UniProtKB/TrEMBL annotation:
<dbReference type="GO" id="GO:0005524">
    <property type="term" value="F:ATP binding"/>
</dbReference>
<comment type="similarity">
    <text>Belongs to the ABC transporter superfamily. Macrolide exporter (TC 3.A.1.122) family.</text>
</comment>
<dbReference type="InterPro" id="IPR015854">
    <property type="entry name" value="ABC_transpr_LolD-like"/>
</dbReference>
<protein>
    <submittedName>
        <fullName>ABC transporter ATP-binding protein</fullName>
    </submittedName>
</protein>
<feature type="domain" description="ABC transporter">
    <location>
        <begin position="6"/>
        <end position="229"/>
    </location>
</feature>
<keyword id="KW-0547">Nucleotide-binding</keyword>
<dbReference type="InterPro" id="IPR017871">
    <property type="entry name" value="ABC_transporter-like_CS"/>
</dbReference>
<dbReference type="InterPro" id="IPR003593">
    <property type="entry name" value="AAA+_ATPase"/>
</dbReference>
<dbReference type="InterPro" id="IPR027417">
    <property type="entry name" value="P-loop_NTPase"/>
</dbReference>
<dbReference type="GO" id="GO:0022857">
    <property type="term" value="F:transmembrane transporter activity"/>
</dbReference>
<dbReference type="GO" id="GO:0016887">
    <property type="term" value="F:ATP hydrolysis activity"/>
</dbReference>
<dbReference type="GO" id="GO:1902495">
    <property type="term" value="C:transmembrane transporter complex"/>
</dbReference>
<dbReference type="GO" id="GO:0005886">
    <property type="term" value="C:plasma membrane"/>
</dbReference>
<keyword id="KW-0813">Transport</keyword>
<dbReference type="InterPro" id="IPR017911">
    <property type="entry name" value="MacB-like_ATP-bd"/>
</dbReference>
<dbReference type="Pfam" id="PF00005">
    <property type="entry name" value="ABC_tran"/>
</dbReference>
<dbReference type="InterPro" id="IPR003439">
    <property type="entry name" value="ABC_transporter-like_ATP-bd"/>
</dbReference>
Length: 229
């Protein structure tokens, strides 16, 4: 394994519901190498999305450390964490999370509005990102004018536009038919292989996991390593 871009040590995560404490992750250690494409698999409730949220800085561990690109993100304040996410993480969700009143270009531009880039530079980056995902001609279309696969491509372009350290994908093909899902997975594979993007993807779909370079299988908050493909 090469340089670890993500490193978790002794991570525990629990939630309190009334008087009950629910353990989600138990004493978890994990390294993810720079340039890896990792599929997190496991049954519902196994802790996959919780782990993804910790890696992406959307949640904090109850104990232990989470380091991404050499930074202890579990020690950052909420404001610092928001700025860190904007610089380092590109998110891709199952239901796209596009703004319905904005066209594709404006949706892709959203992460750049947190930067100091001039408008002309933002537009250039947006158009490059849309070209990478094969939607250079659809920049003026709103989400309602796009197919599900096209909408997910716009979401991937939005995740790419700030050139993040890590792409974090939560069931990115869960709302798509098999053919469209495979097209999206081929795109993610290309981003990994040709553009060197490190990708962590939660999926329940064994066929989707086959596109990754490694698989980790989770059960009851613990991890077992899948064989490299």
């Amino acid at each position: 394994m090469g340089e670890a871009i993500v490193s978790l040590r002794g991570v525990l995560k629990h939630y309190t519901r009334g008087k009950q404490t629910v353990e989600v992750l138990e004493s978890l250690d994990l390294d993810i190498a720079r340039g890896d494409f990792l599929a997190l698999m496991g049954p519902s409730g196994s802790g996959k999305t919780t782990l993804l949220n910790l890696i992406g800085g959307l949640d904090r561990p109850s104990a232990g450390s989470v380091s991404v690109a050499g930074e202890r993100i579990d020690q950052l304040s909420s404001g610092q964490l928001a700025q860190w996410r904007a610089r380092h993480i590109g998110f891709v969700f199952q239901f796209y999370n596009l703004m319905p009143m904005l066209n594709a270009e404006r949706n892709v531009e959203l992460p750049l509005l947190l930067t100091r880039l001039p408008a002309a530079d933002r537009l250039r980056r947006v158009r490059v990102a849309l070209e990478i995902v094969g939607l250079a001609e659809r920049g003026g279309h709103k989400p309602s004018e796009l197919s599900g696969g096209q909408a997910q491509r716009v979401a991937i372009a939005r995740a790419l536009v700030a050139d993040p350290t890590l792409l974090v994908c939560d069931e990115p093909t869960g709302d798509l038919d098999r053919k469209t899902a495979d097209e999206i997975l081929h795109l993610l594979q290309t981003l990994n292989r040709e553009y060197g993007k490190t990708i962590v993807m939660v999926t329940h779909d064994p066929k989707a996991a086959e596109f990754a370079t490694h698989q980790l299988h989770m059960d009851k908050g613990r991890i077992g390593t899948g064989e490299p493909l």
